[in-house]
Write a structure and sequence with these properties.
This protein is mainly α and 331 residues long. Helix content is 64%, strand content 0%. It is elongated, with a radius of gyration of 28 Å.
């Protein structure tokens, strides 16, 4: 065993004792209890935690001497756990400035796998990104959280997120919802016009008026389904609208709906006019949803199966470790 490893082992034991004493002091007066035999599972867990602490101390000393830490470069989940333990130990010894460049570099090497891992548990990655001062991890995690807020579907509870970050997420989510409501209003109040420039009515142009109603009904259905399923804002619907064409509400479907309303015997005049009206509504929709379908993540939202909106801008002023600096620059 090398001298560094021996010292790390000693300090790991001291750290465990310190953490135990801190935990005990927070529980009030000590009460004597009858000894309880530990289960095999509890012993195994304690041993695992001890090994993690020992490895973290060993890695910290390696970095003290400008040597690369032993952190997984093939398994991002393992690297996450290792980094969390190292950060907790480095915080205890006031050495975060030593570990940041090493851990940040290791995590960045995962590239796409890193961003996929963040999508699986953004709250956990957000909490790690702050002591590491990692702008890329922080931004990616924050966008996920804002897009889903106030829902939190991930393993790490929202209650574990620092309060100042909750405030930031809430502010950005409010702005996002305000933008979404503006777009929804544009889409639901949009209609078609006659050749004279007047809005179509059931009396003046029943075919065009009914096409507009079918379009609005589709929008309302998307909103209703999202609410019933208790989902975050329905990003998929806006992304479909941005594509336009027959990816949603194809002409055949609309034509069948209109046939059912009017009846086969009465006809609609010109089906070409129905196609023209539907195209006009969809072209308006393409422009209206543009601000909502911007993807600020590093992931492809459709490939990753992300349903919520990701059009969240994250700037220097949002980084908690630079907030004071950014405020000073802006003055």
């Amino acid at each position: 065993m090398s001298p560094v490893t021996k010292l790390a082992k000693i300090l790991a034991g001291i750290t465990n004792n310190v953490l135990h004493e801190v935990g005990s002091s927070n529980k009030g007066p000590r009460q004597e209890k009858a000894p309880v035999s530990s289960t095999a599972g509890e012993k195994s867990k304690r041993q695992e935690l001890h090994q993690q602490q020992l490895a973290a101390h060993n890695n910290l000393f390696l970095m003290y001497y400008n040597r690369a830490p032993s952190v997984s470069t093939t398994n991002v989940s393992a690297a996450l756990t290792q980094c969390e333990v190292i950060v907790s130990v480095a915080t205890l010894y006031g050495s975060l400035n030593v570990v940041r460049p090493y851990l940040g570099n290791i995590l960045s090497q995962f590239r796409h796998a890193l961003f996929s891992a963040i999508a699986e548990d953004p709250p956990r990655w957000l909490k790690l990104s702050i002591p590491l001062e990692s702008a890329s991890i922080f931004s990616e995690a924050l966008i996920h959280l804002v897009g889903c807020w106030p829902h939190c579907y991930w393993p790490t509870p929202a209650a574990t997120i620092p309060k100042d970050m909750i405030d930031l997420i809430t502010q950005k989510a409010t702005r996002l919802n305000d933008l979404r409501r503006e777009v929804d209003q544009e889409l639901l109040t949009n209609s078609l016009s006659t050749e004279e420039g007047n809005l179509v009515t059931l009396a003046s142009s029943p075919e065009s008026w009914m096409v507009a109603q079918v379009f609005r009904d589709w929008m309302a259905t998307q909103m209703r389904d999202a609410r019933r399923a208790d989902l975050a804002p329905h990003g998929n619907a806006y992304r479909l609208m941005r594509k336009g064409g027959d990816v949603y509400l194809p002409l055949e479907t609309v034509s069948e709906a209109l046939h059912g309303i009017r009846g086969k015997g009465k006809g609609w005049g010109s089906w070409a006019k129905v196609a023209e009206d539907l195209k006009a509504l969809k072209e308006f929709g393409i422009g209206a949803v543009k601000p909502l379908v911007r993807n600020c993540l590093m992931l492809d939202v459709e490939v990753a199966g992300i349903r919520y909106l990701t059009c969240v801008d994250v700037g220097v002023e949002d980084f908690p470790w630079l907030r004071g600096v950014a405020d000073g620059v802006g003055k």
